[in-house]
């Protein structure tokens, strides 16, 4: 309900032609329509049962109306003062549409105070009218041809400043939207929305849009101001997380951590870039008189132009030789014009890209600065400071001094004495050579080519190989961690690992004369490495993934994860000695020599078996030096390790073991082995024998022979008790032993026991037939005999 306050308040009854009844109306109220002097109170709908129809309320000059709600296309025309009105109608046909009806109209001389405009609500401030302290929310809108002071836009609240209109002190909160049209003016606006999607993200549904003039705007975190080609902004302050997009004009902008983007056709003058501020001049954009202070950054893209730049110490310039930039820095005047850069200072995020066919002279690259010289580009008289970054490949031409004062050069397919600090990158092309390269946290990529002299990797350095790269000298790691990845490294050179860090070799084929592990850790991951690893005690070697190491190890702590393989060749230059071995992978003793079996030894102090396997070569046909051997020296063998036995000799010939058997695990110097520390992984057969693994009281493990028989032998043995002779049979014919193939094999037989006759006769040997009709014989060495259809010949020398 609208309540009126006036010194001479009086009321009268008026006829309401809609309800057909008299209602109480103010003496000062006026109606629009056929019957003059009739006002329809907005509360009428509340006391009648008829449908609500649009009503027009007029607040005359000198009148003050408090409270009330406008709905259903109601109009309130304010020439006096309306305070605290809620407007919920007038935008049913869309934002700022001329087809809309209803809402609150602040006419010339009228004032609207503390108005709340909600969903579908509209407040129209006409020329000469004033609205103050308005809250617009939930899709409501305010249209200005007059003046609006201290408007707050919440949750899709909108404000349209038309030509001649002015908005002062507007606050734009999340999803709020202010549009300043041509001829409109907004001053002191605070923008808190529009950039939630990130810097210069596509977003035109919130923030401040300037087609007219915006002055003294403050853009906070997530705030955005977009200046259209017809628009102009002056004295804008932009904090971190806020940004300004310029298609028109921006003057005297101050960046306190915020961003300014100047697009094609846009102009920015007198921009001040303080700490973490960032001005970007895009292709076709123009900036003049920009000042870059400590930790501020000016970026001029290809085709952009920035003139009369003042770059103070610590300020960053980011550009390329395809841009145009002039100004002064701590070295004096500098320029980037027509593909030539001179006297440029790069620091604190600054960067200069020297493009193909372009040049740069007298470039200073200090901490945080980057010089990128593309293939075919030229940079001379380069001065690299501590922390400066160089990006180049062997197709560029670069010369200058390193941070330590030494000269370096790149040119003609040859790179000499490069020092790549953290963030730096150099690419060696196929057929080119890099000599004495030092990588201190940078990236060295070799697409083939040759490493010459000493190549040093330190402090997080990465050497990436693509194709086949040759190293005939020394690749060394001295400090911190380093990564060697991809491709193939071949040659007669060596890899030297010093320092407490870790060198990781990943997805690489590495073939070198030697790998020397002097300190720290060497991790081989998914790589094939063919070389001996010569280590110092206290170091660590890890084989992970599907790594295959072909070579000896002496001595270090070794870890093999599941899937990793270590092949120990019998021609290694050193014996493999390991301190602690954690084993879940595969270890193979392999034969590299031809024509001669040479057993190999792996010596371990402590073995922690994790179901890993060790494949040992065994010669059951030899009496001595007949097996590879695992030696536990002074420590313990725990867990479970599977021993796979490989017959390296003639599988048809095997000797019976003597003594403790064939030693395959030797415990020395007080070493102990747990029961179950080793299990036999496969059956080993040779000739007439099986060989099985046994643990002895001396903590060592041996293979011992056992005779092996065909399945029918137990049946024959059960018939012995039925024999009438006293002869004893220990085994069936030679054909009953599985080592014989066919019936015509030559075999020497001898009588095993019993006697060949009975009392009062000469026995079988003399041709007398007793009750025994068959003689069972056992194979015997010493010479051949002929089996003639299972009939045996006897004479005074024996039975054949």
Automatic annotation (TrEMBL):
<dbReference type="Pfam" id="PF13018">
    <property type="entry name" value="ESPR"/>
</dbReference>
<feature type="domain" description="Autochaperone">
    <location>
        <begin position="576"/>
        <end position="693"/>
    </location>
</feature>
<dbReference type="InterPro" id="IPR011050">
    <property type="entry name" value="Pectin_lyase_fold/virulence"/>
</dbReference>
<dbReference type="InterPro" id="IPR012332">
    <property type="entry name" value="Autotransporter_pectin_lyase_C"/>
</dbReference>
<dbReference type="InterPro" id="IPR043990">
    <property type="entry name" value="AC_1"/>
</dbReference>
<dbReference type="InterPro" id="IPR030930">
    <property type="entry name" value="AIDA"/>
</dbReference>
<feature type="compositionally biased region" description="Polar residues">
    <location>
        <begin position="202"/>
        <end position="215"/>
    </location>
</feature>
<feature type="region of interest" description="Disordered">
    <location>
        <begin position="196"/>
        <end position="215"/>
    </location>
</feature>
<dbReference type="Pfam" id="PF18883">
    <property type="entry name" value="AC_1"/>
</dbReference>
<feature type="domain" description="ESPR">
    <location>
        <begin position="8"/>
        <end position="50"/>
    </location>
</feature>
<dbReference type="InterPro" id="IPR024973">
    <property type="entry name" value="ESPR"/>
</dbReference>
<protein>
    <submittedName>
        <fullName>Antigen 43 (AG43) (Fluffing protein)</fullName>
    </submittedName>
</protein>
<dbReference type="Pfam" id="PF16168">
    <property type="entry name" value="AIDA"/>
</dbReference>
């Amino acid at each position: 309900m609208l309540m009126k306050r006036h010194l001479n308040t009086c009321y009268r009854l008026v006829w309401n032609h809609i309800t057909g009844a008299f209602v109480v109306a103010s003496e000062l109220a006026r109606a629009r329509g056929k019957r003059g002097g009739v006002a329809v109170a907005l509360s009428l709908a509340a006391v009648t049962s008829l449908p609500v129809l649009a009503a027009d309320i007029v607040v005359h000059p000198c009148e003050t109306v408090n409270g009330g709600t406008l709905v259903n296309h109601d109009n309130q025309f304010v020439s006096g003062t309306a305070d605290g009105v809620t407007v919920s109608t007038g935008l049913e046909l869309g934002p700022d549409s001329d087809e809309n009806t209803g809402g609150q109209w602040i006419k010339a001389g009228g004032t609207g105070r503390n108005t709340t405009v909600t969903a579908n609500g509209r407040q129209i401030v006409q020329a000469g009218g004033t609205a103050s302290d308005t809250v617009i929310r939930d899709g409501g809108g305010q249209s200005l041809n007059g003046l609006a002071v201290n408007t707050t836009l919440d949750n899709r609240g909108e404000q349209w400043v038309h030509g001649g209109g002015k908005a002062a002190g507007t606050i734009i909160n999340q999803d709020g939207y202010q549009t300043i049209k041509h001829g409109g003016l907004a001053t002191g606006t605070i923008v808190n929305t529009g950039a939630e999607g990130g810097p210069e993200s596509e977003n035109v549904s919130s923030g401040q849009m300037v087609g007219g003039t915006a002055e003294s705007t403050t853009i906070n975190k997530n705030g955005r101001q977009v200046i259209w080609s017809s628009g102009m902004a002056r004295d804008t302050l932009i904090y971190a997380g806020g940004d300004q997009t310029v298609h028109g004009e921006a003057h005297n902008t101050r960046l306190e951590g915020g961003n300014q983007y100047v697009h094609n056709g846009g102009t920015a003058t007198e921009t001040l870039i303080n700490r973490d501020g960032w001005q970007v001049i895009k292709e076709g954009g123009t900036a003049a008189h920009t000042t870059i202070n400590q930790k501020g950054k000016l970026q001029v893209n290809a085709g952009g132009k920035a003139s009369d730049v003042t770059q103070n110490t610590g300020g960053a310039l980011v550009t390329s030789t395809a841009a145009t930039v002039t100004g002064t820095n701590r070295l004096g005047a500098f320029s980037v014009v027509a593909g030539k850069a001179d006297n440029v200072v790069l620091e604190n995020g600054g960067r200069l890209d020297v493009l193909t066919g372009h040049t740069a002279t007298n470039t200073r690259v200090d901490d945080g600065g980057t010089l990128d010289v593309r293939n075919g580009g030229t940079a001379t008289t380069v001065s690299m400071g501590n922390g400066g970054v160089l990006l180049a490949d062997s197709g560029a031409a670069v010369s200058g001094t390193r941070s330590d004062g030494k000269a370096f050069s790149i040119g003609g397919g040859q790179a000499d004495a490069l020092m790549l600090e953290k963030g730096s990158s150099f690419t060696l092309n196929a057929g080119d050579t890099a000599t004495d390269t030092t990588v201190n946290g940078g990236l060295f990529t070799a697409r083939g080519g040759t490493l010459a002299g000493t190549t040093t990797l330190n402090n997080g350095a990465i050497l990436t190989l693509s194709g086949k790269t040759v190293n005939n000298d020394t690749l060394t790691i001295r400090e911190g961690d380093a990564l060697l990845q991809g491709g193939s490294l071949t040659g007669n050179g060596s890899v030297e690992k010093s320092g407490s860090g870790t060198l990781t070799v990943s997805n690489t084929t590495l073939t070198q004369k030697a790998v020397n592990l002097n300190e720290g850790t060497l991790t081989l991951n998914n790589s094939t490495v063919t070389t001996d690893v010569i280590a110092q005690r206290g170091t660590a070697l890890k084989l992970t993934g599907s790594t295959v190491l072909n070579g000896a190890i002496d001595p270090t702590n070794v870890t093999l994860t599941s899937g990793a393989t270590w092949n120990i060749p019998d021609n290694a230059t050193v014996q493999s000695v390991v301190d602690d071995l954690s084993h879940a992978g595969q270890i193979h003793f392999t034969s590299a020599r031809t024509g001669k079996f040479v057993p190999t030894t792996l010596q371990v102090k402590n073995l922690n078996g994790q179901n890993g396997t060790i494949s040992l070569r065994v010669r059951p046909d030899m009496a001595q030096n007949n097996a590879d051997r695992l030696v536990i020296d002074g420590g313990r063998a725990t867990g479970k390790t599977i021993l796979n036995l490989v017959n390296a000799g003639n599988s048809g010939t095997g000797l019976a073991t003597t003594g403790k058997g064939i030693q395959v695990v030797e415990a020395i110097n007080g070493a102990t082995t747990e029961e179950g520390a080793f299990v036999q992984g496969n059956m080993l057969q040779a000739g007439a024998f099986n060989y099985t693994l046994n643990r002895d009281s001396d903590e060592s493990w041996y293979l011992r022979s056992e005779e092996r028989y065909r399945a029918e032998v137990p049946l024959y043995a059960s018939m012995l008790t039925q024999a009438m002779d006293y002869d004893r049979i220990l085994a069936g014919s030679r054909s009953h032993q599985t080592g014989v193939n066919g019936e015509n094999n030559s075999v020497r037989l001898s009588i095993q026991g019993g006697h060949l006759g009975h009392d009062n006769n000469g026995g079988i040997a003399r041709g007398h037939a007793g009750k025994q009709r068959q003689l069972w014989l056992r194979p015997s060495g010493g010479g051949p005999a002929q089996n003639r259809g299972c009939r045996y010949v006897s004479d005074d020398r024996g039975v054949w």
